[in-house]
Write a sequence for this structure.
């Protein structure tokens, strides 16, 4: 069976897992994915989502951005600052998931306001709303009166 364009990712993941002295099963457990699924990723047979890559990166204590580039989700020359800002927000252990999503929404709205584009190159955790709904308790924008 021919592998997808993620062989480089699989080889890299295997190398990082071995450097961390983790078995396939240990990494799968730590990342919250199944052992067979992780094995298929390492062999280049499956292309994981950005969310799965983020979980694996966290378990390996490596940059999720590196995995995004190797998986072809992110172009290596694309706006690194934006990706790094998103990654820092998502990795901050002092914030809960709602707070992270609100910060990402605010960040995205400022980028749009400054003419720097709409969707970011990677959205590992999609928000359920935009925050523009006045009834939304997670929305960054509220109007008085």
């Amino acid at each position: 069976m021919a592998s997808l364009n993620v062989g480089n990712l699989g080889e890299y993941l295997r190398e990082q897992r071995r450097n961390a002295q983790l078995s396939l099963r240990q990494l799968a457990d730590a990342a919250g994915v199944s052992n067979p699924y992780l094995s298929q990723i390492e062999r280049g047979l499956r292309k994981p989502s950005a969310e799965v890559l983020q979980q694996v990166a966290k378990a390996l204590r490596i940059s999720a951005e590196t995995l995004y580039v190797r998986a072809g989700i992110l172009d290596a020359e694309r706006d690194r600052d934006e990706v790094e800002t998103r990654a820092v927000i998502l990795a901050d252990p002092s914030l809960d998931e709602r707070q992270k999503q609100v910060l990402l929404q605010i960040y995205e709205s400022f980028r749009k306001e400054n003419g720097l584009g709409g969707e970011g190159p990677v959205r590992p955790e999609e928000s359920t709303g935009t925050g523009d709904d006045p009834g939304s308790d997670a929305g960054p924008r509220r109007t008085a009166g």
